[in-house]
Amino acid sequence: MLVFVSLKQFFRDLRNQKLRTFMTIFGIMWGTISVILLLAFGTGLQEHQVKSFKGLGEQISIIWSGVTSKPWNGLPRGRRVRLTEEDITNIKISVPGIRRISPEYTGHSVMLKSHRNNLVANVSGVWPEFGMMRNIIARDGGRFINARDMDEKRRTIFIGDELAEKLFPGEDPIGQSLQVRGMPFVVVGVMVTKSQDSSYGGRDKRNAYIPSTTFQSMYSQRFPNNTIVQAVDDGAMKGVIDGFYRYLAAKYNFDPEDTEALQIWDTSEGFKFFYTFFMAFKLFLVGIGCLTLITGGIGVTNIMNVVLEERTKEIGIKMALGAKRATIMFQFMFETILLTFIGGAVGFALALIIIKLFPLLNMTDELGTPIVHFSESLGAVAILGIIAFLAGFFPARRAARLEPVKALKLF
Amino acid sequence: MIEMKSIKKTYDTGSVSFDALKGIDLDVDKNEFIAIVGPSGSGKSTLMNLMGCLDTPTGGEYMLEGNRVETLSSNQLAEIRNRRVGFVFQAFNLLPYATAYENVELPILYAGLKHKERKRRVTELLGKVGLADKMANKPTEMSGGEMQRVAIARALANNPQLILADEPTGNLDTASGGEIINIFEELWRDGRTVIMITHDTNIAKRCQRLIRLKDGRIDTDNGNGNGNGRH
Ligand SMILES: Nc1ncnc2c1ncn2[C@@H]1O[C@H](COP(=O)(O)OP(=O)(O)OP(=O)(O)O)[C@@H](O)[C@H]1O
Ligand SMILES: [Mg+2]
Hints:
The complex is a heterodimer.
Chain A: H1 7-16, H2 18-55, E1 60-67, E2 80-81, H3 85-94, E3 98-113, E4 118-126, H4 129-133, H5 147-151, E5 156-159, H6 161-167, E6 177-180, E7 183-190, E8 207-211, H7 212-219, E9 226-231, H8 237-252, E10 262-266, H9 267-306, H10 308-320, H11 325-357, H12 364-367, H13 374-401, H14 404-409
Parallel strand pairs in A: 4-8, 5-7
Antiparallel strand pairs in A: 1-2, 1-9, 1-10, 3-4, 3-6, 3-9, 5-8, 6-7
Chain B: E1 2-13, E2 16-28, E3 33-37, H1 44-51, E4 59-64, E5 67-68, H2 74-83, E6 85-88, H3 100-111, H4 115-128, H5 144-155, E7 162-166, H6 174-189, E8 193-197, H7 201-206, E9 209-214, E10 217-221
Parallel strand pairs in B: 3-8, 3-9, 6-7, 7-8
Antiparallel strand pairs in B: 1-2, 1-4, 4-5, 9-10
The structure holds adenosine-5'-triphosphate (ATP) and magnesium ion.
Magnesium ion (MG) binds near residues 44, 45 and 166 of chain B.
């Protein structure tokens, strides 16, 4: 049996029915692009947000001095509670659940002077652990403050990427000299660009860090401005904070229940909220993806219905001229599969181009970089193709099973 | 060529059914030229669609060139429509997006002929109906008369011996209608059987045999044994 009359005739039909061909391809293409872009931008945004949130550091708390709010053991309220570096060292040893800890001494608006440029920035004196807690990572060729810097009170400085750009435009800052309040320092590292959406005291890219020992010798500041602590895991932070209160309450004589005695920002709290939020966001995305698919499917179905009358009449004519059912159905199926394939491929390609070009818009800081999901996208194309196929298949089969006059007169 | 015995056709439209043909007995020999006339709704088109195997009767027996039509499979019917019968519609029924050439070529494609042979035939047929210069035109770029001539060329594509035409001049003016009838007459003189439905008595008069339908039955038939045919 001659099922497929001629490839030439098939392509001639496609070429002749430009609108129908175009609409089918367009429907599939549109659905494909929407689903791919939605998935890509959705997950891109999500990962970006998670990363930015982690930009401040994971499972960290920042602790500032506070003022007691309750009288205790005959002592009045309103006394200042301030941690010393010694307290920090003791807490690190005595409180379980601490992974890293560091004081942070901050010099505000310090004059920095390179051989190219002058500017003012915040300079913090910290321990070597600080960098790891805060996800401050050195670019290749550089490093963060280390233990030897601390021990020898070296004049070494680690600078944020934006500072590096301004102080040493077009140059490698590492090994260069930088004057801090008139004293010569050596740049030992530059921060890898990171996204950060929360901070205290300015974004890390505009800050500089020196060993806390060096800082103290320059400023003779007794109390750190704040302390940063990182818990060993998600659940440990509460115990760590309790440990802080207990240790300090005993030492400075205040009520361990007096939460005002310290100011604590537990970022892991925010992170928990953030995670729930993003689980919801993910579900939302899946929902939108399904809706997009349904919308795309309806669009394709509509297109198939628009051409149904024309197609039914055409089937009637062809059968009146002696076309066999199988010939007609085969042509129809081949046509749908080919058009779905083309529409899917074009949609895929366009979506990829949009995703590739998107970073040029310079909005990745806000929206993240879209991420392509190949298998999900392929699944979406397949679903659209099946919808298109079914939407066209049953009416076409019905027409092909009718007597030719009925197909001719159906509409 | 055609033998019909008490052919019936009942249309079922929802709850009501309508007997469009109430028992037609009809014999048609080779090389007849027949006009079917009758009032609107008398069943002319219904009868012609059955003759051309475009529809199936609800009762009776139909022999077409030795084939019992009721017993044929859908593929065998397709083959008959493709090779044995040429059908010309009042509404032309050309594929709107295809050129004259492509429209005429279609039945030859279904018959499975090679490109060269198809080209030879299509060119010859379109030449015969006087449209050698309109081969690349689409239906929208042609007059009604031209479209109907394309339809005739298409009906002749596989050289069928039976030509059926349902009011072929119904949508045409007198001049182009006359040209169409000339072509049919020529086909008859070539030895084919031509049956056409018409409301035009002048056209009916040019035919050799006149069958008048009324209410789904043959009212008068001046041919085939009745002895009052004009030839
Ligand atoms: N598909 C159908 N369903 C129901 N009834 C139909 C159908 N086709 C035709 N009829 C009815 O059958 C009768 C015969 O119709 P037919 O088309 O054969 O008439 P006709 O003689 O060709 O008329 P006309 O000269 O107007 O073309 C009409 O009453 C018509 O309403
Ligand atoms: Mg009619």
